[in-house]
Specification:
The chain is mainly α and about 70 residues long. About 50% of the residues lie in helices and about 10% in strands. A two-stranded antiparallel ribbon has the order 1-2. The two termini are about 25 Å apart.
Amino acid sequence: MKQSGDDGAQADVPLSRTRILEAALRLADRSGVESLSMRKLAGELGVKAMSLYNHVANKDDILAHV
């Protein structure tokens, strides 16, 4: 997984529950909670949606923690 820094450099950033929840919060702030989906969240993180389930149970789990 790659994430761009402020300088445009690519750095390996492992997927984690914290990273997922932070991305979910950013996505919800930008587009509204009702638009949050596992697929959109995965796209925000640059991973496949199924990868998220190694760290969170489901969308309700995410919503309960953001």
